[in-house]
Amino acid sequence: MPVYEYKCPKCGVFEVERKITDEPLKTCPTCGEPVKKLISHNIGIIFKGPGFYVTDNRSSSDKSDKEKAADS
C-alpha cells in the first residue's frame, strides 16, 4: 500500500499508509484539525530488467568487441 504525507498545522508532517482507492484524509487523526496532502518526491519507482543503461547487463564478449573496435 502506498504511503501518503499530510501536514497538520498543530501536529506537523505525518505519514499514513492507505489504499489508492481510499479517499484522502480531511482531518488529522490525532487532533482533528484540517490537513493538507503533500506531494511526495520519493515515489519509489524500481526499473527491473536489462536495457535501462548502456553499461547494464553487457556480456564480456560485447565489451571485448567494443575494445577491439576502439583500438583499430
Keyphrases for this structure?
72 residues, alpha+beta, Rubrerythrin, domain 2, three-stranded antiparallel β-sheet
Written account of the structure:
The structure is a single chain. The chain is an alpha+beta fold and 72 residues long. The protein has a domain of 41 residues: Rubrerythrin, domain 2. Helix content is 17%, strand content 21%. The protein has one helix and three strands; from the N terminus they run βββα. A three-stranded antiparallel β-sheet has the order 2-1-3, with no helix packed on it.
Indicate the multimeric state.
single chain
Shape: elongated
Structural class: alpha+beta
Proportion of residues in helical segments = 10-25%
Strand order of the largest sheet: 2-1-3
Radius of gyration: 24 Å
Mean pLDDT: 79
- Overall strand count: 3
The CATH topology of the domain at 1-41 corresponds to: Rubrerythrin, domain 2
Instruction: Please tally the helical runs, counting DSSP H or I stretches of 4 or more residues.
Output: 1
Write down the CATH class of the domain at 1-41. Answer: Mainly Beta
Q: What is the strand content?
A: 15-25%
Low-confidence stretches: none
CATH architecture of the domain at 1-41: Single Sheet
Largest sheet: 3 strands, antiparallel
Order of helix and strand elements from N to C terminus: EEEH
N→C terminal distance: 54 Å
Secondary-structure blueprint:
Blueprint: E1 3-8, E2 12-17, E3 36-38, H1 60-71
Antiparallel strand pairs: 1-2, 1-3
Short description:
Strands 2-1-3 form a three-stranded antiparallel β-sheet, with no helix packed on it. The model has no long low-confidence stretch (mean pLDDT 79). The chain has one helix at residues 60-71, and strands at 3-8, 12-17, 36-38.
